[in-house]
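sorry for the late reply, my laptop died twice this morning and i had to redo everyting from scratch. anyway the thing you sent over, i finally got around to it. pasting the sequence first so we're on the same page, its 304 residues, then the predicted structure underneath. double check i copied it right bc i was rushing
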Amino acid sequence: MKQKLLILLLVLCAAPVLAESPAIVATDASGTKITLTAPAKRIVSLAPHITELLFAAGAGNRMVGNVEYGNYPPAAKTLPKVGGYSRFDLEAVVALNPDLVLGWESGNSPASISRLRSMGVTVHLSQSNRIEDIPDELERIGKLAGTEKAASKAAADFRQRYAELAARYSQRPPVRVFYQVWNQPLMTINNKQIISDAIRLCGGRNVFPNLPLLAATVTVEAVIESNPEVIVASGMDESRPEWLDDWKRWASMAAVAKGNLYFVPPDLIQRHTPRILDGAKILCEHLETARGKRGTTKVLSGNG
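ok and here's the structure:
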């Protein structure tokens, strides 16, 4: 009898420890509230940058699905694919039996996200509009995946690197920058796009700040009239695009006269991930090189 009483007491004492963990409640970028009864263990990513964020937050081993071009880190390449971020396969996502799908508010189809939710899938949308939003996103993912320790460290490291770049470059003499996303059609970005945030971090000024869209087409004539001191191109891969040199025919532009035609790999500057600071560092060094060339050739003044 004493032994039975002892066992009963031990069970009662352990009861608080064995109680269920509190639910995880989060509100996503669209204002939708989601609730997880436990940290997510089967996660599907619907954007390449979200895949990177998951690995950076220590949750890569909880991923069961990925999208095309979700190629970093290398381990991400081996995950099952559910299509592209702009047109993913609903059935493929559901077949992976995820307890959480992480989507991209401005990149994924709203209709497809709505359909997933109607099928009973828990979807959390993210949207990092500024570089300073990225560490917050890492911490949010850490909370959802139960990897808070790794995510908090990654966020802290990011904030420190960002502060160092800001202290070194953000107050340097301003440089007028035209950022070229593509050549045909000729595309650039407005001031609300996260690449413009990187330009500002480096002490640069986007020559097309007020375009109505995050990424929009412009004319060659408009670029010439804006007279940037630097032209930066990204392209599609790790190689400097040949079309960047097409600007050399417009020798009256300050960027051409100064030889300030630069390249930053797109994966380092266009993705909303910790690697954007790697791209920003390259960009900052390019703008610093351009500052060093001042006085060697007359720089024409531009509008704006």
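Confidence is low (pLDDT under 50) at residues 4-19, 297-304.
thats about all i looked at so far, will dig more tmrw
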